[in-house]
Amino acid sequence: MAISLPLPTGLSLDAASWKQTPLVVRQGVIHLLAQYRQRRDEAGALARTLEREMGSLWTFVVEDGVEPTNNRAEKALRFAVLWRKLMQGTHNEKGDRWVERMLSWRETCRLRGMPTFPVSIGWAHMPRTGASSTVA
Predict the structure, then answer these.
(1) What does the DSSP 8-state code read for residue 115?
(2) Are residues 88 and 111 both part of a single domain?
(3) CA angle at residue 92 from 88 to 98, to 5 degrees?
(4) pLDDT (tens digit, 9 = 90+) per residue, 14-29?
(5) Which of these, 26, 44, 99, 103, has the minimum number of CB atoms within 10 Å of its CB?
(6) Do 47 and 27 fall within a single domain?
(7) Residues 47 and 57 sit within 8 Å (Cβ to Cβ)
(8) Rounded CA gap, 15 and 58, in Å?
(9) Could you tell me if 77 and 125 lie in one domain?
(10) Is there a single domain that holds both residue 83 and residue 58?
(11) What DSSP assignment string belongs to 58-90?
């Protein structure tokens, strides 16, 4: 049996809609979870998990700037996942740490709109010139 909550017509699950949703609807979600909590099937397990995570599940409603999805985080990880799949990993711990740092460096440059290669060359020359990093 699936857990379902009838939402008012036209209501979507984005942050703006949830902020406008009456407290009664949000309380209905909590009430519905309580009905399924004692069950010993997948619906009960889901209800218990959602109850444990309830505080963090609604952060996007309370905090401005928090997105209701993790699309941004998944987009940031996509390059690293594809690289690892293509290269089949590094085969040792030291290589794993190096790749993590380089991919993090690449993503930081991308998010700041900076070209990775020229910034990396400048970064490599910093110890000799005494300049400070523009990315760190």
Answers:
(1) -
(2) yes
(3) 85
(4) 556 656 665 666 778 8
(5) 26
(6) yes
(7) no
(8) 9
(9) yes
(10) no
(11) THHHHSTT--SS-HHHHHHHHHHHHHHHHHT--
CA-nearest of 80, 65, 68 to 11 is 68
For 8, what's the count of Cα atoms within 13 Å in the CB-facing half-sphere? 11
Do residue 54 and residue 93 come from a single domain?
no
Angle (CA) 57-58-59 rounded to 5° is 100
Give the other-Cβ count within 10 Å of 15's Cβ: 19
CA distance 123 to 130: 10
Give 48-96 pLDDT, tens digit per residue.
Answer: 998 888 777 777 777 777 777 777 778 877 887 788 778 887 788 888 8
Half-sphere exposure of 101 (CA within 13 A, CB side): 8
Note whether residue 5 is domain-resident: no
The closest alpha carbon to 111, from 132, 131, 80, 135, belongs to 135
Token pair listed for 40 = 């010993």
Q: Is residue 9 part of a domain?
A: no
| Closest residue by Cα to residue 26 from 1, 55, 66 | 55
